[in-house]
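Supplementary Methods, section 5.1.

A reviewer requested that the exact input to the structure prediction be made available. We therefore reproduce it here, unchanged from the version used in the analyses.
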Amino acid sequence: MRPRVLLTNDDGVNSVGLWAAHDALTPIADVTVVAPATQQSAVGRSISIFEPLRVDEITHHGVQAYAVAGKPTDAVIIGLFALKIEPDLIVSGINIGENLSFESIMTSGTVGAALEGANQGVPGIAVSLQVEDQGDKFGDPRQSAQSFSGAASVTRDCCERVFRHGFPAGTHVINVNVPARPTGGYACTRLAKKLFSTGVERRLVPRGRPYYWIDGPLIDDAETGTDVHAIREGRVSVTPLTLDCTAPGAAPAIADLFRD
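The structure derived from this sequence is encoded token-by-token as follows.
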């Protein structure tokens, strides 16, 4: 039997990146698309528990898909528990924009969807494509200046490796980031600490009241062995992620702090 894939994202069900992944995977797997109806970037693993979720069955270029009026995590839960898809693997992406470092994976809806699937017992691969112009992250995801052909090939290759060899032990999600201009192969990496130099820009409305934009440039580089460094070198970053956020190295200090 062919493996079954639940394909989702955070850019919305009509995103060009999502359908590039779909076209890459359909020759090797039975793919069902269940994705947010609209753009849901940077919502992390947030979940809709105060409002109902509506699901529309749509057709995209002749392919049946499900549009969920909610977040990426909602789409995964709907796919697993309402649509009863029973996938062997969840693939989230291809995201328009890289998802690197501690700060990015904690807010990424792309990674959040894969983590939610893993939390429900289905391992996942999150795939993101670096953008050379950060403004592309805020454009219409149905159209993009990026070429997704390289990232689509990487998506298929990663899934084929997992189908052939099994999902790596001790890993819940594989976070894959593809450079905009690849110059090397894969690099097995760890998360860098930062992707952005976070800042806040203060502006004034015409009547003088202030408002704020959270912004900040990308950092130039990070330590050797990190995902940020691999992308800066033009290599495909592959980072194993786990749901367990426990810090075992801190256990002795915590025990001392709370000793009676």
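The chain has one domain: 4-192+221-257. These observations are discussed further in the main text.
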